[in-house]
Every structure is written in C-alpha cells, then in structure tokens.
Design goal:
single chain, alpha/beta, Elastase, domain 1, Neutral Protease, domain 2, 8 strands, disordered N terminus
C-alpha cells in the first residue's frame, strides 16, 4: 500500500511506523551525545536536555527518544557507523512535528536534507498512530541520512527508488521477523495491513513497472527491495544487510540507476567474499529474478 504526503524537495519520507511494544528487545543505550531531540508540541521547537531527555513524561516523546537511541545503537553495533554521517554527527529528531501549514497530527515522518533533521508526526489516529513509536521507520529515516552523506542521489526516477528501497531494507534488517513496513500503526483499526510489503510488492519485474513522472520513488523501490529479500532468503537477512550497507557506503555511484545499484551490491559481495563466491552468485541471481541485469549500462537503466 502507498500513502502520498506533501514533502518539500529536501525531504525523504517513509509514511510508516511500528508500535512502542515492539521495541523492548532493541538496544537503547548509545554513546553519549548520539541523539538530539526537539519537542514541537507547543508550536516552537524546544530542545530537550538533562532530565527531560532522560525521563520524559510525554509517552510519544519518550518512545521516540528510545527508538532514536536504538537506531543509533543498531548502526554502531552492526556496521560500526559513528553517527549518520560516519563522523560522529548526532541524530537530530523533531517530535510532534506539524504539517507544512502548521497544523498538528502530521501523517508522515521524513528526513530533511537541508536541515539535516528527522521530522516525526503524531498521526491523526486514523491513518497513523504516532510515528515516534516506530523503530523501523526511524531506521528508514536514518538510512536516508546515510544515503545523503554517502552518495548524492536525485529523489526521482530510479535513483529515488534506490533511495527508498535502501531505507526500507535497512529498516527490515534492523527489525526482523517479517518484510512489512509500518504494519502495526498504519491504519491502526485495520489489522494485518502495512504501507509496504517488501516480499510481496505490486511489481515484481522491471518490465511490469509503469512509466511516467507520476510513478514515484516508493513504487520504484519495489524491485531493488524484492532483490534484497531474495538475497536474504539465500544468505540470511544479516548477511544481506552487510552486503547492502557496504554497497551503499563504498560502491554506489551518484549516477546509478537500478543496474548501477545491482553492480554496487555485486562489488560489495565480491569484496566481502570473493568474486567467485556463492554470495556473489546469490546476489546476481536475485537481481536477474526481478529483470535487472547488472551488466546493462547507459540510459536504459542508469537514469
């Protein structure tokens, strides 16, 4: 399923979340100074420090703080990453973030490249519960930040799809168990649905994708995400995550389309396991299964 929300040109949104109860198993104590939190509930963003940051009486803010810390801990312990930029920059989040017109209950969460902050809406209780309780969504938005710090991808066409796919895939690596994004708080009165199902997308092969400017990054993310799922089925989710992360920070080119993204994951798998390894074969097979051949070059795919 797809939800469209207004975002400015610098924003990368997910439109999803996960309930607070799902976060108990995740680590929550990162290095000091790893996050900065602002509360926008009063209409003015106020930075939380000291006691307010350590023990907040507002359950939405408290859960967002815990999830932000868990996200930072995930990237530190899993990939050794020091901050979203790899150089110690703290994750900055705005909780109770309003809509662009200043009204409350925004049905969105997004990374703003220009401000280098994550904005978290409260939801309207019908489309979303508060997105601050979303561990996989917080990972998703943090991954957008990592994408921006590692490789400059346009947020349109196949590059937009790559951007959204890597964010979803990292969310699924951090929050294993299924391949759903936002399943627990999207339309909270409707059980069993989700914003995106990476394992069962609407489009499963490149030839099936519609064309035109109306096809957005979330639709285009389906194919690289499905390729990642199939690599995880062959190698395990953790190993796929290692390859996908290495591809992002070491091999993905700023001009890459789908074929370029596939080549980046092959290069990462070869670097980790050798050019003739079973891991490289599994990655190649997965991309070919969705109709993307890493050997393709030129405008056909790298757009």
């Amino acid at each position: 399923m797809q939800l469209t929300a207004a975002m400015n040109a610098n924003a990368r949104g997910v439109h999803a979340s996960v309930p607070p109860a799902a976060n108990a198993e995740h680590p929550s104590v990162p290095a000091a100074g790893a996050i900065e939190v602002w509360d926008a509930s009063s209409g003015v963003e106020q930075r939380l420090t000291g006691t307010d940051l350590a023990r907040n009486a507002d359950p939405v803010v408290a859960t967002a703080i815990a999830n932000a810390r868990a996200v930072d801990a995930f990237f530190r312990t899993t990939f050794g990453r020091d901050g979203w930029d790899g150089q110690g920059a703290p994750m900055r989040i705005i909780v109770h973030a309003p809509n662009e017109d200043g009204t409350p209950n925004m049905n969105n969460a997004y990374w703003n490249r220009g401000q280098q902050r994550i904005f978290i809406g409260d939801g309207d209780g019908r489309v979303f519960d508060p997105l601050g309780g979303a561990f996989d969504v917080m990972v998703h938005e943090a991954t957008h930040a990592i994408v921006d710090s590692s490789v400059h991808l346009r947020y349109s066409g196949q590059q937009g799809g790559i951007n959204e796919s890597w964010a979803d895939v990292m969310g699924a690596v951090a929050d294993p168990g299924d391949w759903l994004i936002g399943e627990d708080v999207f339309t909270p009165d409707v059980p069993g649905d989700a914003i995106r199902d990476l394992e069962h997308p609407s489009y499963t092969r490149l030839a099936d994708l519609p064309s035109g400017p109306e096809v957005g990054p979330h639709e285009l993310s389906a194919l690289p995400s499905l390729a990642a799922v199939r690599v995880a089925e062959a190698l395990g989710r953790g190993e796929m995550g290692r390859i996908w992360y290495r591809a992002l920070v070491e091999h993905l080119d700023s001009r890459a389309g789908f074929a370029g993204a596939a080549r980046a994951t092959l290069d990462a798998a070869a670097e980790l396991h050798g050019a003739t390894s079973n891991q490289v074969g599994a990655v190649l097979d997965a991309w070919k299964s969705v109709g993307i051949d890493p050997r393709w070059k030129g405008a056909r795919t790298d757009t």
